[in-house]
Amino acid sequence: MFLDESGFLLVPNLKRTWAPRGKTPVHYHLYRQDKVSAITALSLSPKRRRATLYIRLWTRNITGPMVASFLRQLFRHLRGPVLVLWDRGTIHRHHEVNHLWVSTPRAHREFFPAYAPELNPAEFVWAQSDSALANGAPDTLKVLHHRLYQTANRLRRSQKLLWACIFASDLPWTR
After folding, report:
1. 72 within a domain of the structure (yes/no)
2. How far apart are the first and last CA of the chain?
3. Phi-psi category of 22—alpha, beta or left, where left has phi over 0 and alpha has psi -120 to 50?
4. Alpha carbon 1 to chain centroid distance?
5. pLDDT 10s digit of each residue in the chain, 175 long?
6. With the CA atoms of 100, 103, 104 and 110 taken in that order, what torsion angle do they form, in degrees rounded to the nearest 10?
7. Which domain holds residue 126?
8. What CATH code is carried by the domain that includes residue 94?
9. Looking at the domain assignment, is residue 73 inside a domain?
10. Which residue from 14, 16, 18, 70 is spatially nearest to 41, judged by alpha carbons?
11. How many independent structural domains does the chain possess?
């Protein structure tokens, strides 16, 4: 399972777009620092050869206890041994998260090398989310939550998109 966190602000996520020559698009917005923090886990089932996406959203910064809570829910849902691959973020080394590894013998963790986000397929889930949110600015956190869940649900329903996230990483894959 690949795990990663990200944050989304109530500001426009601009992307290149088409416009008539001489009519540069202008996007007006109010700058607000409200944000939604997200954590996702992209899991692979070796027996069924199926990818699955799990997501949880908060309206504040993610902390170590929140990561531990997310992992506990995943471990209740997933059967058998679980290997979590993630970056060396400080919240991943929080004492509550470390205690979870000790108390869950079927779960193991491995860290990606420092400064190597291109190896984590969960990073490409954010690329999909950024693309879906492009050229628009949600007015409220509720709208942003809704759009992020819509994107997650679109990804969940498509094995093709989930495998695209996996194969986009620089890890050596064979299917």
Report:
1. yes
2. 16
3. left
4. 12
5. 999 998 877 766 656 667 788 887 776 666 667 888 899 999 998 776 899 999 999 988 899 999 999 999 999 988 889 999 999 888 998 999 999 999 999 999 999 988 888 999 998 887 877 676 766 677 788 888 888 888 889 889 999 999 988 898 988 876 5
6. 50
7. 2-13+28-168
8. 3.30.420.10
9. yes
10. 70
11. 1
Amino acid at 75: F
Our separate counts of H helices and E strands in the chain read: 5, 5
Pairing of the two strands 35-45 and 2-9: antiparallel
Q: What are phi and psi for residue 15, nearest 5 degrees? A: -140, 155
List of residues 6+ apart from 52 with CB closer than 8 A:
42, 43, 44, 45, 156, 162
C-alpha distance from residue 3 to each of 30, 32, 34, 140 (Å):
32, 28, 24, 27
Q: Which residue has the tokens 């620089």?
A: 170
Instruction: Tell me the pairing of strands 50-58 and 2-9.
Output: unpaired
Helix (H, G, I), strand (E, B) or coil at 105: coil
Residue 22 lies in a domain: no
Nearest of 119, 114, 95 to residue 171 by alpha carbon: 119
Category of 101 on φ-ψ map: left (φ > 0), alpha (ψ -120 to 50) or beta: alpha
Cα-Cα-Cα-Cα torsion 34, 35, 36, 42, nearest 10 degrees, comes to 180
Q: What pTM value is reported for the model?
A: 0.81
